[in-house]
Amino acid sequence: MITVKCFRxxxxxxxxxxxxxxxxxxxxxxxxxLIQKEIGTYVSKSYDTNYSLQQRxxxxxxxxxxxxxxxxxxxxxxxxxxxxxxxxxxxxDSIPRFLKQYYHRSVADKDTLNIATAQGLFGDYYNTLGKxxxxxxxxxxxxxxxxxxxxxxxxxxxxxxxxxxxxQYNDNIxxxxxxxxxxxxxxxxxxxxxxxxxxxxxxxxxYNDGDAIKYYNIVVKESKDSLHKAIALNNIAVVYNNSHxxxxxEKILSKxxxxxxxxxDARTKARVWCNLGYAQMMSGNPNGISLLQSSEAERLKLxxxxxxxxxxxxLAEAYKNNPNLxxxxxxxxxxxxxxLNSPDDRVEALTYLAANSDDHSARxxxxxxxxxxxxxxxxxxxxKNQFAKIRYDSRREKDENxxxxxxxxxxxxxxxxKKRQNDILYTVLAFMAIIGVMLYLLLRKKHRREKIRExxxxxxxxxxxxxxxxxxxxxxxxxxxxxxxxxxxxxxETLVNNLDSAYSRSRDIARDNxxxxxxxxxxxxxxxxxxxxxxxxxxxxxRGIQDIPWESISENKKNATWRVLQEIMVNMKKHSQADxxxxxxxxxxxxxxxxxxxxxxxxxxxxxxxxNGLRNVENRIEAINGTVTFDxxxxxxxxxxxxxxxxx
Length: 648
Prior knowledge:
Layout: H1 10-24, H2 30-46, H3 53-70, H4 73-90, H5 95-108, H6 112-128, H7 132-148, H8 152-168, H9 172-185, H10 189-205, H11 209-222, H12 226-242, H13 246-257, H14 260-263, H15 266-282, H16 287-302, H17 305-318, H18 323-339, H19 343-355, H20 359-397, H21 402-483, H22 489-512, H23 522-531, E1 539-543, H24 555-576, E2 580-588, E3 591-598, H25 608-613, H26 615-623, E4 627-631, E5 638-645
Parallel strand pairs: 1-2
Antiparallel strand pairs: 2-3, 3-5, 4-5
Helix pairs in contact: 1-2, 1-4, 2-3, 2-4, 3-4, 4-5, 4-6, 5-6, 6-7, 7-8, 7-20, 8-9, 8-10, 9-10, 10-11, 11-12, 12-13, 12-15, 13-15, 15-16, 15-17, 16-17, 17-18, 17-19, 18-19, 19-20, 21-22, 23-24, 24-26
């Protein structure tokens, strides 16, 4: 298939910047043209392998020096990109430092083109390390900055790099979205061919054969290179093979098989042989297996590991009447797929291994198949979520003013510069003090965040209760008072009852959110809180509350105990329909055990709301290293056991 590579020839990129500058800037001064030519000469020498690596590095540094002196951002971008390519070949360990210097220089100069270029090169670097999430984030940032410059060519290029990552993780929705977005910016035939190839991949994976063939035909039309056309036609044949239209596939591939430009390219030739052999084999043509074997031999000669996996899997299917030979080919495919860390191919190979093995081995292969498949699903879903978050955050950030963003980066760099100076000056004398202050600030910040988070939760809970309960009662009372004759004693009494109900609800809300006294009277207050849920129709029984060594339990755990029991009692009152509730406390060893039970409806299919309401109970108890157990098998009623250590 035609796929985009996330790093094209830097020399070509440099030429692209230089040519675009020449085309866009009419009336360019003669000295600028001379500088452009001189930079191009230095870059050319940096790619000349007749020079030593140090000489090549010297020439690319000369190019960068000339570009910086010219002040032309496109010259700077092209020369730095070229140096990245040289470092990638010969000095990979120096790349991170080089890119950081390049990025910081660009930010300091408020040079948006080079900021975006540096971000894109960071993406290329992390992509070569296999760190797809970091690479994706940098590609996305680069694309966003190129959008501010209306640089459609670079927007498309970085979108295609992101598409390549989506493709690696089989994220069809992401691949389709960025490819469609790239299509809006692209007016370059090579890019259009790549974009439609991506859309063809998505359609093929989603078994939308009609669209896949349509997109691949556009690739054929837009590609100028005969070999690229051949690869696109081969992809169309693959779609036909997958949809069991072997005659249509064979018709296309038979023509490609003898095409001179296919024969001249060994990898494409082997690919065509493999797919044609498969189509013929599935059609019952005995020549098919021979072509598959020829494809195997060619790919072995080329050391084309990825292609060999496909050939071996087709041969495993071809030898289905010879289980030993089919198993051998499937095992070869599995071994190569494992070495390539290609989980999809491993899963497919395991399918044939299971089908051609004895019962014991088949079960082992099947279990391994399930394990790998589950792992693929988890990893890809996590990646999809991460990529979606990156894109979402980027769209939100894009609304900010670009000038303010650049100033913020510049201020951050200035702050870092001063901080480094102070660190160097005072490190020896004040190291421990700095560490102490840093720890204090971190803890205070964490405590502040927790307080803000807890306050927000409390405010949200109060607001919901006021809206759902108190506001409705007050509205009903107001409506009643407005529409009824209050001189009537019965109606006046009804209004008073409604207002009393609203008052009771407001008192309950205030009680639920009052500060908790965790001092010596904690046990008595806890008993009072639980007893307040008693009513003429509900008995609350409390046992053993004084048996707990509350003085040895931390304030945090006392607060959690109070809120958890309050949550349980509120949910019981709302949903359980119980008339007897018991709460029993006991301390066994170093563990506090709290047993709750009622004779209500329990957590059944009709009580799912009740269970959902108790999720906060689990969260709070887990936060103090405790456990919560719901007894769902005891018939009518609900039993909850809470346990946590007296001390951590």
